[in-house]
Amino acid sequence: ASRVMVASRNYADFANEATFEIKKCDLHRLEEGPSTTAVLTREEGLHYYKTMQTIRRMELKSDQLYKQKIIRGFCHLYDGQEACCVGLEVAIKPTDHVITAYRAHGFTYARGVPVRTILAELTGRKGGCVKGKGGSMHMYTKNFYGGNGIVGAQVPLGAGIALACKYFGKNEICLTLYGDGAANQGQIFETYNMAALWKLPCVFICENNRYGMGTSVERAAASTDYYKRGDFIPGLRAISVYQVDGMDVLSVREAAKFATEYCRAGKGPILMELQTYRYHGHSMSDPGISYRTREEIQEVRSKSDPITLLKDRMINNNLASIEELKEIDVAVRKEIEEAAQFATTDPEPPLEELGHHIYFNEPPFEVRGPNQWIKYKSVS
Amino acid sequence: QVTVRDALNQALDEELERDERVFLLGEEVAQYDGAYKISRGLWKKYGDKRIIDTPISEMGFTGIAVGAAMAGLRPVCEFMTFNFSMQAIDQVINSAAKTCYMSAGSISVPIVFRGPNGASAGVAAQHSQCFAAWYGHCPGLKVVSPWSSEDAKGLLKASIRDDNPVVMLENELLYGVPFELSEEAQSKDFVVPIGKAKIERQGTHVTLVSHSRPVGHCLEAAAVLAKEGVECEVINLRSIRPMDIEAIEASVVKTNHLVTVEGGWPQFGVGAEICARIMEGPAFNYLDAPAVRVTGADVPMPYAKILEDNCIPQVKDIIFAVKKTLNI
């Protein structure tokens, strides 16, 4: 029997790779910066696309679940900023370390935690990333130290992880992320000092999404050149008029490759500013339009969306077809739906586990409940 | 006979030698040999990698120490005094104490925070606070408070070997005090278990519970009272969290009277906790009189000697409290 070909696109029809111009970075105390061209293979492109799309849809699903009151408490969404966590992850190794603040779902996924495990943690179920003990702001996995709720506190922690990297001598580095809001925290400057003094292999990364909660960068910082705030620490920032380049996954990747190479060479810490944008408000309790205009949000969405940017590049350079990317979209939606299904049906953690993991590697002991007669067992 | 200072020094030396993941950081710990000379000789022996002088940046270096612990090292983070730990208390509580729980056990923080705590001599209000109650309040931390050289050495070794964040509250006035160190305590593997109190003196008429320097005052008071026929049982808590309440209960069942003694302020203090727990447990029915607390005076520490002397629990205050509770 003969098969009827309705439509076919041979994979040999696609280009294997394409080269793109990316914006030159602003440099601080650096003679040269990252490359201004980036090579993207078809395989890489599809991977970046799928990863960013997954994060995008996961965050939108979280929005939905929060509005249905299935997710409680704080929920800080990352949609709009996907190019940052994806560009960073592909530039480092699984053996490198990452720590960030509370807008962490994208990083949690990029570092290897499946969507269903993330969503189940958000919904507080036993199948969650940390068995329902942490919630949105406290998700961890190998070489990923969260998820930290206290603004700025993760920065010294990251430098400490970098100290351990240097101490163990395995050529690992630590990406230490913080936002434009956190950039004014005192302990960050204490950390810059020690990281530079001790030449810690720490890449400080400021994800500048223009607003610390509801306070714009101009109203919070005497100097908004965040990449220069490390003073004696060399820094780089993707030049941007429309703050595009934290939205360009290739830009982020090349800058990250440059920065991590610098660190690995033992030159000490380096600071990277990524100018990016969040579509949602600061958290789910912030509509996000009292301190910025809908027009501004729309403009970024239409001109600088990271996923659209990548998609257009790939289509226009014959790295993928529209149908192919649509198929990926469909697959991603399906994955998210299944994950949400799991996250809403998995049982909550058993009450008996309330006292577990207070300590590590400790013989079981008793924990006091709300009164002296209610006791829980703590097992670690 | 070994001073508390030397006992701590030995403990650090032994643990640094035993496990190369152990390192010490803090202000003046290296080239200055330690503000109170606790780390004397260690920098010369172990070098820059293991003994690290930090700038005056408590919040920063404490966070760095906690991060290093999360990534597999075993830091000993020294606070020149615990008064300065207030700068860094967020890192101790929110980053160190809570992380194992928040991460459902996937991240451990094997760190020791140590340094002098409580009143010294003439250092005035900002340098004299006792933090036993503050740190003892928080689940996820272990808090120890040594008195003797054996306590100091054994608890520091145990704390360093513990995979959890431990706050070790030393006392500056005890650093120079010599104590007998038994054969056993001189061994490189000697540890004092965290969470267990020690009965320093057996007695039958009243239980005195204390931690840190006041333990010595209790023993002095006991010696004076013995001449009057009152035999005090003196319990050295050694650990604030977990607290060995069973040891206190067993003693109260025997003596029927309880006096707690601490250097810290009375409100929400260690003694308050002991009293509450005694009320909740079997020992309550054995009390012949309400439990009594002897504490620091409820005032910021003044400077003038006569004022300062009357702000800390003295031997006479303990004797007075014992006699009151025994109604003699």
Automatic annotation (TrEMBL), chain A:
Q: Name one GO biological process term.
A: glucose metabolic process
Q: Where is the Dehydrogenase E1 component domain?
A: 51-351
InterPro entries associated with the record:
DH_E1, PDH_E1_Alpha_Subunit, Pyrv_DH_E1_asu_subgrp-y, THDP-binding
Q: Name one GO molecular function term.
A: pyruvate dehydrogenase (acetyl-transferring) activity
Key word Mitochondrion present in the record? Answer: yes
The cofactors named for this UniProt entry are: thiamine diphosphate; Mg(2+)
Keyword Transit peptide in annotation:
yes
Q: Give the record's GO CC terms.
A: mitochondrial matrix
Pfam families named in the record: E1_dh
The record's section on CDD domains has:
TPP_E1_PDC_ADC_BCADC (cd02000)
- SUPFAM superfamilies per record: Thiamin diphosphate-binding fold (THDP-binding)
Q: What are the subcellular locations of this protein?
A: Mitochondrion matrix
Catalyses:
N(6)-[(R)-lipoyl]-L-lysyl-[protein] + pyruvate + H(+) = N(6)-[(R)-S(8)-acetyldihydrolipoyl]-L-lysyl-[protein] + CO2
In which domain of life is the source organism classified?
Eukaryota
Q: Which UniProt keywords apply?
A: Carbohydrate metabolism, Glucose metabolism, Magnesium, Metal-binding, Mitochondrion, Oxidoreductase, Phosphoprotein, Pyruvate, Thiamine pyrophosphate, Transit peptide
Principal localisation = mitochondrion
The portions of this protein that span the membrane are: none
Q: What is its EC number?
A: 1.2.4.1
What is the protein's known function?
Answer: The pyruvate dehydrogenase complex catalyzes the overall conversion of pyruvate to acetyl-CoA and CO(2), and thereby links the glycolytic pathway to the tricarboxylic cycle.
Name of this chain's protein: Pyruvate dehydrogenase E1 component subunit alpha
The record lists the organism as: Struthio camelus australis
TrEMBL record, chain B:
User: Keywords, A to Z?
Assistant: Carbohydrate metabolism, Glucose metabolism, Metal-binding, Mitochondrion, Oxidoreductase, Potassium, Pyruvate, Thiamine pyrophosphate, Transit peptide
Question: What does the UniProt entry say about where the protein is found?
Answer: Mitochondrion
Q: Which GO terms describe its cellular component?
A: mitochondrion; pyruvate dehydrogenase complex
* Alphabetized SMART domains for the sequence: Transket_pyr
Q: How does it assemble?
A: Heterotetramer of two PDHA1 and two PDHB subunits. The heterotetramer interacts with DLAT, and is part of the multimeric pyruvate dehydrogenase complex that contains multiple copies of pyruvate dehydrogenase (E1), dihydrolipoamide acetyltransferase (DLAT, E2) and lipoamide dehydrogenase (DLD, E3). These subunits are bound to an inner core composed of about 48 DLAT and 12 PDHX molecules. Interacts with DLAT.
Q: Which PANTHER family does UniProt cross-reference here? A: DEHYDROGENASE RELATED (PTHR11624), PYRUVATE DEHYDROGENASE E1 COMPONENT SUBUNIT BETA, MITOCHONDRIAL (PTHR11624:SF96)
Classification via NCBIfam families: PRK09212.1 (NF006667), PRK11892.1 (NF008854)
Task: Relate the protein's function as given in its record.
Answer: The pyruvate dehydrogenase complex catalyzes the overall conversion of pyruvate to acetyl-CoA and CO(2), and thereby links the glycolytic pathway to the tricarboxylic cycle. The pyruvate dehydrogenase complex catalyzes the overall conversion of pyruvate to acetyl-CoA and CO2.
Q: What is this protein called?
A: Pyruvate dehydrogenase E1 component subunit beta
